[in-house]
Specification:
Elements (H helix, E strand, L loop, with lengths): L1 H8 L8 H4 L3 E12 L2 E8 L6 E2 L2 E3 L6 H13 L1 E5 L5 E9 L2 E17 L11 E4 L1 H7 L3 H15 L25
Parallel strand pairs: 1-7
Antiparallel strand pairs: 1-2, 1-4, 2-3, 2-8, 5-7, 6-7
């Protein structure tokens, strides 16, 4: 016990992260959204330990895809169900504190179009939830990487389909012209 306390109080060593700076632990999460008129709103929840505003996230279940696992976390932590995106909109890193140790985790976030919101859900007594506009959500979130993922999803949702930038073909190298001599 004393060793554990001394280790916790001792100098912290910087560990190099495997896979080019990506933490070894990867979780999945959802960004629940719904439309309020012509503007998307986002569902934030509080973390249990610090009370910070975050999106639902958790460990990827062994028998589930990361997207399905994110949908499950959204139900358990926020009480919402809906259509989950198959492709992650982005990822962010955060510190996970457990007892006397902390570690970095990466969280892949999937968009979740909310179709049902329950008044009773598994973690109702330990979390608060709040629907926010994009501007409000940016003020509540304190992780810059998480904010960047939210911004990316917001841009994807609000960019009109016709206004998408056309994909430019790759530039071709100009071939030198062949000179044809005429006599």
């Amino acid at each position: 016990m004393l060793r554990r306390i001394m280790r916790a109080l001792g100098p912290r060593r910087r560990r190099s992260l495997p896979h080019g700076g990506r933490p070894a632990t990867v979780q999945s999460g959802a960004i629940p959204y719904a439309w309020a008129g012509d503007e998307p709103t986002y569902l934030l929840i509080t973390s249990r330990r610090t009370g910070r505003w975050i999106f639902p996230k958790g460990a990827v279940e062994p028998d589930m895809t990361p997207a399905r696992s994110a949908a499950k976390e959204a139900w358990e932590e926020a009480g919402v169900r809906g259509e989950i995106g198959k492709i992650a909109v982005g990822a962010y890193r955060t510190e996970k504190v457990e007892r006397h140790a902390s570690r970095m985790i990466a969280v892949d976030l999937y968009p979740l179009k909310v179709e049902d919101q329950a008044s009773d859900w598994p973690e109702r007594r330990s979390r608060r939830r709040h629907w926010a506009t994009h501007r409000q959500a940016r003020k509540l979130i304190d992780n810059p990487e998480l904010m960047a993922v939210l911004d990316r999803l917001h841009a994807d949702l609000t960019q009109p389909a016709g206004d998408a930038e056309p994909v430019k073909p790759p530039k071709r190298r100009r071939q030198p012209r062949k000179r044809v001599r005429t006599r």
